[in-house]
Write a structure and sequence with these properties.
By secondary structure, the chain is mainly alpha-helical. A two-stranded antiparallel ribbon has the order 1-2. The protein is flat and about 75 Å long.
Length: 123
């Protein structure tokens, strides 16, 4: 099986997972009375409101922690979480340096290339 066929197979399997999920959601809906469905919808709405408020607080304190750690330039450990400080990454104009390296081949000794990677995305 070539890569295109494998990608198509992966897509089919993902679609099958969606169909199975929808099937079981439908089975659940069939056994719930309209009253129970309404009660569950109200509970879900209340939970979503509470979770939205909590997520706002989580984002706020996360941003504060990140700012504080950047100011300290040091990793900080809590009882359950750790904020890891990473030195700023350096980047270079690769096209420009590759052109410069043509005229200065001794620069090739300083060039490193990592391994390629793959992410699978929906089209």
């Amino acid at each position: 099986m070539d890569i295109k066929e494998k990608l198509d197979r992966l897509s089919e399997m993902q679609s099958q997972a969606d169909v199975i999920r929808l099937h079981f959601d439908d089975l659940k809906a069939q056994i719930l009375t309209p009253e129970l469905q309404q009660a569950l919808a109200e509970i879900d709405a209340e939970m979503n409101t509470a979770m939205d408020a909590l997520q706002g607080g989580i984002k706020s304190i996360t941003d504060e922690i990140k700012e504080d750690v950047i100011k300290e330039c040091a990793t900080v450990k809590g009882s359950y979480l750790m904020a890891v400080w990473n030195k700023a990454r350096v980047s270079w104009d690769t096209k420009g340096l590759d052109g410069y390296a043509v005229a200065h081949p001794e620069m090739a000794a300083f060039r490193k290339e990592g391994d390629p990677s793959v992410t699978i995305r929906k089209i």
